[in-house]
Write a structure and sequence with these properties.
Elements: E1 2-3, E2 14-20, E3 34-40, E4 45-49, E5 66-71, E6 77-83, E7 88-97, E8 100-105
Antiparallel strand pairs: 1-2, 2-3, 3-4, 5-6, 6-7, 7-8
Length: 112
C-alpha cells in the first residue's frame, strides 16, 4: 500500500492509501486494479475500502482525480471527498472503532 500524504489523520494513526493486486508500480508505470482503502498506519491494517480509484506513484498520478480527507480533531472520524473530472464519485463519513470503520454515504448533488 502507498499512503496519500495529505490524508493522514491528526494523530498520525490513520490514513487513506491505495494498493493494486499487481503490487505497487513505480516511476512512470500506470497501475492496474487500483483499490483505495482507509488504513491504520502503525500496522497497515485495512479498516475499510473506499469508493475511489485514486493513485500516485511519486512521479505520476491519476489525471483529473482528487481525494480529500477532512479529519475530526481526535482522529476517530473522517469525511472522504473523491472527485473526478466531471463529478463527485464519493462523499462519505467514516467512524473508526477498533479494527474497523463504519461508512455513512452523505447526500450530495452536483452543481450545474
Amino acid at each position: 500500500m502507498r499512503v496519500f500524504a495529505d490524508t493522514i489523520s491528526p494523530s498520525k494513526n490513520y490514513a487513506f492509501a491505495w494498493r493494486s493486486a499487481q503490487g505497487l508500480p513505480s516511476g512512470q508505470d500506470v497501475p492496474a486494479d487500483v483499490e483505495n482503502v482507509l488504513i491504520r498506519v502503525t500496522d497497515g491494517a485495512v479498516l475499510t475500502t473506499l469508493s475511489g480509484t485514486h493513485w500516485e506513484t511519486g512521479e505520476i498520478r491519476a489525471n483529473r482525480y482528487e481525494l480529500i480527507a477532512a479529519w475530526s480533531p481526535d482522529s476517530r472520524a473522517v469525511v472522504e471527498v473523491a472527485n473526478s473530472r466531471w463529478e463527485s464519485d464519493s462523499f462519505a463519513y467514516y467512524l473508526i472503532h477498533g479494527a474497523a470503520a463504519t461508512k455513512l454515504d452523505l447526500p450530495w448533488s452536483s452543481l450545474s
